[in-house]
Amino acid sequence: MINRFLNHFEEFLIASFMAAATLVTFAAVVMRYTTGSGIDWAQELTIYLFIWMAKFGAAYGVRTGIHIGVDFLVNWVRPSIRKAMVIAALSLGVIFTGAISFFGARWVLFIHGTGQVSPDLEIPMWIVYLAIPFGSGLMCYRFMQVLKEFLKTGDLPVHDMGGQETAA
């Protein structure tokens, strides 16, 4: 139940950030060419939206099997070694993203204490930096999910290419 909600929420956030960034950019370009002046804060907001989208998109990539991975060596070795390599890689993913989430939370607390605000939007920078612990925390959770499923079934998530044929 909670995973289904989290899956939909994750997808909603990614799509919303992407749509908002696109709309803000479009509006800024239209304003610049119709009135001669753009929207001063559009570029900053677009950057922040893409940062948030990328952090949550990476977690989505882990969950669906489209996150970057180099599997040449893993696919070349015998199955018993392959299993150990996959477990090690997923475990390192958990450790790394967990550490980034932890230290990102510490960074957010530090930035909160400084009172910094963004230059154009004048929003507290700690809000912008929340993408680090939230996105990395979700990514850590997704690595744990994939590891648990792999230990249980031996399967990794495989991204559906939408019916497209892939090169052999």
TrEMBL record:
Note whether DNA damage occurs among the keywords: no
What membrane topology was assigned to this protein in its record? Answer: Multi-pass membrane protein
Q: What is its main location?
A: membrane
Q: How does it assemble?
A: The complex comprises the extracytoplasmic solute receptor protein and the two transmembrane proteins.
Function text:
Part of the tripartite ATP-independent periplasmic (TRAP) transport system.
Regarding protein family, the annotation reads:
Belongs to the TRAP transporter small permease family.
Identification of the protein by name: TRAP transporter small permease protein
